[in-house]
Amino acid sequence: MSNIRLFIYEHCPYCVRTQMSFGMNNVPVDITVLSNDDEATPISMIGKKVCPILQKTDGSFMAESMDIVHYVDQLDGVPLFAPSANREDLNAWLKKVNVLFKQLLYPRWITSPVAEFQTQSAIDYFVNKKSKELGSFDEALANSGVLIKELEAELTVLATLLNSEKHVNDALSVDDVDLFGRLRAITLIKGLVIPEKVKAYIEYFSVVSGIATFYDVAQ
Predict the structure, then answer these.
(1) Topology (CATH) of 5-73
(2) How large is the average pLDDT for residues 153-177?
(3) Has residue 27 got a pLDDT over 90?
(4) How does pLDDT run across 131-146, given as a tens digit for each residue?
(5) Half-sphere exposure of 147 (CA within 13 A, CB side)
(6) Which helix (H) or strand (E) holds 143?
(7) By CB atoms within 10 Å of each CB, which of 6, 90, 130, 188 scores lowest?
């Protein structure tokens, strides 16, 4: 067992970022998935309800996903990830699809097998909180056909922004950590047609990071 522990939600793109850094750097870590309605545990560690949270070997805690990514990436003194290229085109794409991702994914997460939504109280907590941001989950789910077509069009654009299946820029960077962290979730959307280049990118990082996709439980 490792002395390093990572507290996550399985649906959380920021948590995926941190898992990528551990997996791709071959750093062992004990992972604990918190129930989505568990406020007491994260508050006891860092004073607020957020994930991911890293508990280091000295017992101290670290939040903020990219801080954790960089911490793990630099443990051996030889970082894998180059700094962000701060690409305007990629940032604009991510901003454009942000709400679309939420509309398609929020209603699906609560009926998926991820560990943080295995009790009704956890589901209710998430729905009550996110409905203030998204609106009706039922309405978003009923509109899936239109939303999926919109996302397919945007994924076609994304395919043109990818350098290769192994990195979005000229070399592996934290932009890949961010992008895969977000894209992995869309494998939960049943019927979504993902362009081959984007699908290859998702599958490549799933393999090298050891983070499973959701194709088998898509809905």
Answers:
(1) Glutaredoxin (3.40.30)
(2) 98
(3) yes
(4) 998 999 999 999 999 9
(5) 20
(6) none
(7) 130
Say how many Å lie between the first and final Cα of the chain, rounded.
35
Provide the pLDDT confidence category of residue 3 given band limits of 50, 70 and 90.
confident
Q: Domain extents for the chain?
A: 5-73, 90-217
Domain 90-217 has CATH 1.20.1050.10: yes
DSSP for the chain, written as a single string: --S-EEEE-TT-HHHHHHHHHHHHTT---EEEEPPTT--HHHHHHHSS--S-EEE-TTS-EE--HHHHHHHHHTTTS--SPBPP---HHHHHHHHHHHHHHHHHHHHHHTTS--GGGSSHHHHHHHHHHHHHHH--HHHHHHTHHHHHHHHHHHHHHHHHH-SBTTBSSSS-BHHHHHHHHHHGGGGGSTT----HHHHHHHHHHHHHHT---SGGG--
Q: For helices 65-73 and 13-24, give the axis angle rounded to 10 degrees.
A: 0
